[in-house]
């Protein structure tokens, strides 16, 4: 039976029931776009599909050709008119004055309006099956299809090459060239997933086997949460999640017996989750993901005890990930609320994945799905793993999407009132029900438990990709989507959450040795918020009418209303700052970078935490914020900002070239309007708004009086056709008015055989404005490498007007007594001013995809992505500040990034980067 003959009967009844008899005629069916013949001779690439981690891995050659890839998915783009229609619909669905307010679509209705035409789907399927691939799923929303096949078949069909790789001892496979499809198909594909087995990281910090009888430490059981965040008034009214489903997405199997043990220990009734096997599912548990999934399922079900928890998973699939589970949950309308505790810093995903995921989240909102995502556990420096942070201020995606609610972190801050009688009963038996001992709300600060070995604080900051949505009021005037939105306790130590995993609960929450499993991180916040909003949906009536879609307009509406003080616990102390590496992005003078909590909205905790009963009571009586689309047009735009000159050691004016282009495909007029130039979020002068001419503009940035790195942003205003978008460039300046120096070269590369010594690299310090004095040199690697570094002069003395030079020698081996300085990250990342390679989009991006539990991205020279054209947290891994080799070790083959830092006695810092290839 054809797709069309199956689809129409399924669509007709729900469309007429929800939208009325004229619904089918109100929106024409998608027009076919594959009018030309599909031939293999005319192919075009689908770009930005190669994980950046490929650049840092040892290439082991062709992958085994008979290995099966079970979930290779082609995701289809929207036309410009479809995107405009969708953007307007999403605004109308949140506007109480619109007849479309809360009129949600089913996946089939979404596909009939925004999907690929049935004829086009049929043509794509025919071509794929002709290549020997098996169709395993066609999305009910007609916007993606998934195939399986062995590597030989996939390589042949997609004209790509898939290799085996070794990355820090982990074995992986990945495409090492962008796939190519027949041009008509490539023109309608926004991304391809499933060509590699790199997985997103969890945002959980597990503290296994704590023993409270020994430490006296408090831990959070469900009864404590109910007391602290005022859930009990709803539970006593039987507002407990009955009739509401919550989808938890994961990438492992779980233990239902552990869930049952948790509920028994918590005094909760039996309510087993349902396991939903997403496309590409392979049975099995993944050790690095099992704790994450257990806590997500257990705590979502703890906050909404009678809700139906649906765990959507790909199991132990090698090529499918939690992202596949997310796509499945959306396209099959599994639940009105989805919680995801996985993510990575924005630049690590790559534009293709961002485009694909963000578009899926728009679909979720159109279907009335609320999507909640953890904000990350590396504070304001989400690309980093361990201190000192190297890669500047970054935020976590998918939480930074305007279509997601970003869940941030707090920690308890009792002040001097630390006695058990102040906020806690002496034991849970004399406290609240459900194993709790907390007596009520406990004051909070921004969560930050970072140590010398790991970053552990709530993610937050300004997006480098997404402009500020119209509903995001009361936030900094930075032209950016800011995160987080709201927070809850995320501490692992003060105080962590109890959970059951891997048989840890044999006697209540304890194991046979009397120990407890305790967890923290924004991973706990996301499912807990999912439980809270399940309670709210039940109170609002449940069913389609009770769905909320994107809850952010209402969160911000409440925050600026007269009820803000009732609904939110404003967190005004603490920070999410990270110690930073001297001379790196946003850290020219060392110290730390991040954001302080403060009155009202802040980039550490958002609006703070919630009083659940007050949230439920006030929700129906406050209008949402920002009921417009927030842009004059809806077609996608891409903004890029570049410079023809070097973006480091800048001593004069910097000429910026800004380009705004159609990002939707098809034929549209050239973007018009204006571009606002910002330096570190502030307009540099009164003339920093420039007019586009034929889609481009030029701006002369005057020399900065402040030395070091600065973030330059171009924010496109949008016009009648196009949505706003933004592009970012980071440049390092030498002061034009004060004594300073330039370090050259600012980037360089060298190749060396493992165990050998590379040729020397000369670095020159050139004084400016009368600078004199000593300049000391250090070198640090941003990934683990067995190497020795030495300078011909560890410090040079600069005389007035005279440059000084030193030479760096690199040996790709480490002696038995040598130590590497700097933190050891689980992967190589390069500073902001390193240009890309063949894996980049026109040499702009150098991006890495995630590693298990902790992602390690390469930071881009230039981040330039349209605000609406981009679609698609902390593991317990620790960095190591110093390692000593027990025996002589040669450096493993791979590509590494070294930071060469020159520091003057007065604190001036400039940094150069060396790309070291070991072969």
Would you mind describing this structure in some detail?
GO terms for molecular function: metal ion binding; serine-type endopeptidase activity; tripeptidyl-peptidase activity. Its cofactor is Ca(2+). This is Ig-like domain-containing protein. Residues 1-28 form the signal peptide. There is one protein chain. The protein is α+β, with helices and mostly antiparallel strands and 919 residues long. The strands form 15 sheets. Strands 12, 13, 14, 15, 17, 19, 20 and 23 form an 8-stranded mixed β-sheet that branches. A 5-stranded antiparallel β-sheet has the order 33-32-35-36-46, with no helix packed on it. Helix 11 (256-265) packs across helix 12 (290-303).
Topology, please?
Blueprint: H1 3-19, H2 23-26, E1 43-45, E2 58-62, E3 68-76, H3 80-93, H4 107-114, H5 118-130, E4 134-138, E5 144-150, H6 151-158, E6 162-167, E7 170-175, E8 180-182, H7 183-186, E9 189-193, E10 201-202, E11 205-210, H8 212-215, H9 222-228, H10 232-235, E12 245-250, H11 256-265, E13 274-282, H12 290-303, E14 308-315, H13 322-331, E15 337-340, E16 342-345, H14 346-349, H15 351-366, E17 370-374, E18 396-397, E19 405-412, H16 420-423, E20 444-446, E21 461-462, E22 482-483, E23 486-489, E24 497-498, E25 516-520, H17 522-539, H18 543-546, H19 552-559, H20 564-567, E26 568-569, E27 578-579, E28 592-593, E29 609-610, H21 612-618, E30 637-642, E31 654-662, E32 674-679, E33 689-691, E34 696-701, E35 708-716, E36 725-733, E37 740-744, E38 747-752, E39 761-768, E40 773-781, E41 788-791, E42 795-798, E43 804-811, E44 813-814, E45 819-820, E46 862-865, E47 883-884, E48 889-890, E49 894-904, E50 909-918
Parallel strand pairs: 12-14, 12-15, 13-14, 15-17, 17-19, 19-23, 38-50
Antiparallel strand pairs: 1-8, 2-6, 3-5, 3-9, 4-5, 6-7, 10-16, 11-25, 16-18, 19-20, 21-22, 24-25, 26-29, 27-28, 30-31, 31-34, 32-33, 32-35, 35-36, 36-46, 37-39, 39-43, 40-42, 40-49, 41-43, 44-48, 45-47, 49-50
Helix pairs in contact: 11-12, 12-17, 13-15
């Amino acid at each position: 039976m054809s797709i069309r003959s199956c689809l129409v009967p399924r669509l007709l009844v729900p469309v007429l029931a929800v939208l009325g008899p004229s619904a089918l005629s109100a929106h024409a069916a998608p027009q076919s776009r594959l009018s030309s013949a599909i031939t293999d001779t005319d192919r075009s690439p689908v770009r930005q599909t190669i994980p950046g981690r490929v650049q840092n891995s040892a290439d082991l050659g062709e992958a085994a050709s008979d290995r099966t890839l079970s979930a290779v998915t082609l995701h289809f783009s929207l036309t410009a008119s479809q995107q405009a229609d969708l953007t307007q619909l999403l605004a109308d669905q949140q506007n109480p004055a619109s007849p479309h307010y809360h009129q949600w679509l089913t996946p089939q209705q979404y596909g009939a309006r925004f999907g690929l035409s049935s004829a086009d789907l049929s043509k794509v399927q025919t071509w794929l099956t002709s290549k020997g691939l098996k169709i395993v799923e066609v999305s009910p929303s007609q916007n993606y299809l998934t195939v399986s096949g062995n590597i030989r078949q996939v390589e042949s069909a997609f004209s790509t090459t898939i290799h085996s790789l070794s990355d820090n001892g982990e074995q992986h496979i990945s495409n090492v060239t962008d796939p190519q499809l027949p041009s008509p198909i490539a023109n309608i594909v926004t991304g391809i997933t499933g060509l590699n087995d790199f997985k997103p990281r969890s945002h959980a910090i597990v503290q296994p086997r704590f023993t409270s009888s020994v430490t006296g430490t408090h831990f959070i059981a469900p009864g404590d949460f109910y007391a602290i965040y005022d859930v009990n008034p709803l539970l006593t009214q039987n507002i407990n999640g009955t009739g509401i489903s919550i989808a938890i997405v994961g990438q492992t199997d779980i233990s239902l017996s552990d869930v049952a043990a948790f509920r028994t220990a918590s005094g909760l009734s039996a309510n087993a989750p349902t396991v939903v096997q997403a496309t590409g599912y392979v049975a099995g548990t993944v050790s690095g993901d099992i704790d994450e999934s257990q806590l997500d399922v257990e705590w979502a079900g703890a906050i909404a005890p009678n809700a139906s928890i649906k765990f959507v998973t790909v199991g132990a699939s090698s090529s499918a990930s939690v992202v596949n589970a997310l796509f499945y949950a959306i396209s099959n309308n599994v639940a009105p609320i989805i919680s995801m505790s996985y993510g990575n810093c924005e630049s690590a995903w790559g534009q293709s994945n961002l485009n694909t995921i963000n578009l899926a989240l728009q679909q979720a909102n159109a279907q009335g799905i609320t999507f909640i995502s953890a904000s990350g556990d590396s504070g304001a420096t989400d690309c980093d793993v361990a201190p000192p942070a190297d890669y500047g201020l970054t935020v976590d995606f998918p939480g930074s999407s305007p279509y997601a609610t970003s869940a941030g972190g707090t920690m308890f801050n009792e002040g001097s009132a630390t006695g058990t009688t102040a906020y806690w009963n002496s034991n849970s038996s004399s406290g609240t029900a459900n194993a709790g001992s907390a007596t009520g709300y406990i004051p909070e600060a921004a969560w930050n438990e970072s140590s010398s070995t790991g970053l552990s604080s709530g993610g937050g900051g300004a997006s480098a990709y997404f402009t500020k949505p119209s509903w995001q009021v009361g936030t900094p005037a930075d032209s950016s989507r800011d995160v987080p939105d709201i927070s809850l306790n995320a501490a692992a130590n003060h105080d962590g959450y109890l959970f059951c995993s891997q048989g840890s609960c044999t006697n209540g929450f304890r194991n046979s040795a009397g120990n407890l499993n305790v967890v923290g991180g924004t991973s706990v916040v996301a499912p807990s918020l999912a439980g809270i909003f399940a309670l709210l949906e039940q109170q609002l009536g449940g069913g389609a009418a009770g769905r909320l879609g994107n809850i952010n307009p209402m969160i911000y509406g409440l925050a600026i209303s007269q009820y803000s003080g009732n609904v939110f616990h404003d967190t005004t102390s603490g920070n999410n700052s990270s110690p930073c590496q001297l001379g790196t992005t946003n850290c020219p003078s060392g110290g730390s970078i991040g954001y302080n909590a403060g009155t009202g909205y802040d980039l550490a905790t958002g609006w703070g935490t919630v009083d659940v009963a007050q949230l439920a009571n006030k929700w129906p009586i406050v209008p949402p914020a920002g009921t417009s689309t927030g842009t004059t047009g809806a077609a996608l735009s891409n903004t890029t900002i570049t410079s023809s000159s070097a973006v480091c050691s800048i001593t004069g004016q910097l000429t910026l070239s800004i380009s705004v282009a159609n990002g939707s495909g098809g034929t549209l007029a050239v973007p018009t309007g204006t571009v606002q130039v910002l330096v570190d979020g502030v307009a540099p002068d009164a003339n920093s708004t420039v007019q586009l001419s034929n889609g481009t503009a030029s701006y002369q940035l005057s020399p900065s009086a402040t030395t070091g790195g600065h973030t330059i942003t171009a924010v496109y205003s949008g016009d009648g056709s196009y949505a706003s978008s933004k592009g970012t460039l980071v440049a390092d300046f030498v002061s034009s008015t004060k004594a300073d120096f330039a370090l050259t070269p600012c980037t360089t590369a060298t190749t060396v055989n493992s165990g050998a010594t590379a040729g020397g690299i000369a670095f020159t310090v050139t004084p400016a404005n009368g600078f004199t004095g000593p300049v000391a040199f250090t070198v640090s690697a941003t990934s683990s490498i067995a190497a020795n570094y030495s300078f011909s002069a560890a410090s040079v003395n600069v005389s007035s007007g005279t440059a000084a030079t030193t030479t760096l020698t690199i040996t790709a081996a480490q002696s038995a007594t040598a130590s590497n300085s700097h933190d050891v990250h689980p992967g190589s990342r390069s500073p902001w001013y390193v240009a890309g390679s063949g894996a980049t989009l026109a040499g702009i991006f150098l991006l890495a995809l995630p590693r298990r539990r902790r992602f390690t991205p390469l930071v881009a020279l230039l981040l330039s992505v349209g605000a609406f054209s981009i679609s698609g947290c902390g593991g317990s891994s620790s960095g190591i500040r110093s390692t000593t080799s027990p025996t002589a070790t040669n450096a493993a083959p791979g590509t590494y990034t070294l930071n060469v830092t020159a520091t003057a006695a007065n604190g001036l810092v400039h940094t150069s980067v060396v790309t070291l290839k070991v072969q």
